[in-house]
What does this fold into?
Amino acid sequence: MQAEPKLFQPYDLGGLRLANRIVMAPLTRARATAGTDAANALMVEYYRQRASAGLIVSEASQISRQGQGYLQTPGAYTEEQARGWRLVTDAVHAAGGKIFIQLWHVGRISHVDLQPGGGAPVAPSAITAKSRVFTTEGFVEPSQPRALDLSEIPGIVADYAHAAELAKMAGFDGVEIHGANGYLLDQFHKDGTNHRADAYGGSIENRCRLTLEVVDAIAKIWPSNRIGIRLSPVSPANDISDSDPQPLFDYLVRQLDARQLGYIHVIEGATQGARDNLPFDYAALRKAFRGAYIANNGFSRDMAVEAVETGAADLVAFGRPFISNPDLVERLRRGAELNAADVKTFYGGGAEGYTDYPTLALNAAAVSLH
Ligand code: PHB
It folds into this structure.
């Protein structure tokens, strides 16, 4: 009998034994409890159903109210939110899975209606994004942001550290820093959104400074091999661009390597779009980094098997296929059909389009009834 592809074999992620090399990517689903933004029983069921992933990365969770850009995304800054997440991590662990929390600050991708005191969202520079956010009014344009004052930056780093501490109390296996998709840290990385003239703008070193300060603060709380980061070097998500991304990300990844991070999680190409929207040498990032390389974006089963066999990636993250296929790992292992996802129920609502997608076993039972 032929050996199973490596994709389906266990992997040691900094001493954490993953059952396979398939990662559930972070997916915003906006079903936290209204008012508290705490994880709840419905979210527990959703994550429990998907615990056969080698690793789950939670949906992005704001480190502060200021870091929130969409209604009912879960928080990671109150004890009530930590208690909600504890129910999720316990359920995933009981089902044999592993789970990291993704920590985010959305920066300018927010709206005054979501901000403390109805204030302006914050950003490296006061440049409004052409994007969309979700408030009680539905999808709306992000508000005009204000540039962060230099004196406010230590407070943002402290908010990340506080959230990382609560994540530990909540029983996560590690934390993923959201450094991608045009949110706050990526707004600092890229020169299209960062026009600052202080120590956090201008040179590549300066534009990466906030991210590295966040990494260093979290590394005082978590072992460095339990910290990962998500990057999207050339994704235009949330109206972002950089004039020369290769040296920017080559530098950033060398710095992350020096800090012995557990993994880099790289969105190759445009988020939810073409993998080849702009030229970029991802292999150079992999080569510069000794931890694990998680590849993401539009992978088919065959592409994922190949990426792991050839060593292009250690792990492969799937996003939307995990929305509609709780047993995605088993389906990929068998080469089975995938359920189609219903875009209308991606954000907000209840169990419909969230915890009611059938497993293969339920599909088969349904077929045998005919
Ligand atoms: C989304 O809500 O579509 C979304 C959220 C976070 C991301 C990417 C996309 O990093």
